[in-house]
Amino acid sequence: MADIDLKLAQWKLVEVGRVVLIRSGPYTGKLAVIVQIVDHKRVLVDGPSGDEKKIVPRHVLSLAHATLTHFVIPKLPLAAGTGPVKKLWEKSEIDNKWAKSNFAQKTERAERRKNLTDFERFKVLRLKKQARYEVQKSYAKVKAAAAK
C-alpha cells in the first residue's frame, strides 16, 4: 500500500480556551475567551483584559456574533472562574499577541483613517501623490538606463 501523509487542517475549532472577537452587541470589537460550550450555537465567554475599557463580563454569546481567532489559552479548566481565567490570560499574553496580529493592526488603521478630519485627509492625499511621483521618476530613470 502507498504511504499516505495526513496533514491536519488548520481549522479554528470552537473549544474551551479559544479566544474570540465579539462582532456585534454591546461589546463589539472586544476579546473574550470561551469558558464553556453551552450548545452548538452558544458559548459562555469571559473577557478579563488588562485594560479597563476592554473588559467583557461573563455572559452567554451566540457564535454568530463571534469570530474565532488563532489564539488559545492552553489548559484552561472547564467553566473556570474569572480569577483563574485572568491569570491564564495574562500568562498567555493575549493582549500583546492580539495587538501584534495583522487583523488588529488593520482594524486600528481603518479606525484611525475613519477619524481623520478633512484637512488630514487632504495631507494624506498630497503625501501619496508625492510618493507616487518619486516612484515614477525613479522608474523612468531605470527604464531610460535599460534602453541605452
TrEMBL record:
The keyword Aminoacyl-tRNA synthetase does not apply. GO terms for cellular component: cytosolic large ribosomal subunit. GO terms for biological process: ribosomal large subunit biogenesis; translation. InterPro entries: KOW, Rib_uL2_dom2, Ribosomal_eL14, Ribosomal_eL14_dom, Translation_prot_SH3-like_sf. PANTHER family: 60S RIBOSOMAL PROTEIN L14, LARGE RIBOSOMAL SUBUNIT PROTEIN EL14. It is found in: Cytoplasm. The lineage of its organism: Eukaryota, Fungi, Dikarya, Ascomycota, Pezizomycotina. This is KOW domain-containing protein. One of its GO terms (molecular function) is RNA binding. Component of the ribosome, a large ribonucleoprotein complex responsible for the synthesis of proteins in the cell. The small ribosomal subunit (SSU) binds messenger RNAs (mRNAs) and translates the encoded message by selecting cognate aminoacyl-transfer RNA (tRNA) molecules. The large subunit (LSU) contains the ribosomal catalytic site termed the peptidyl transferase center (PTC), which catalyzes the formation of peptide bonds, thereby polymerizing the amino acids delivered by tRNAs into a polypeptide chain. Residues 13-40 form the KOW domain. Belongs to the eukaryotic ribosomal protein eL14 family. Keywords: Cytoplasm, Ribonucleoprotein, Ribosomal protein.
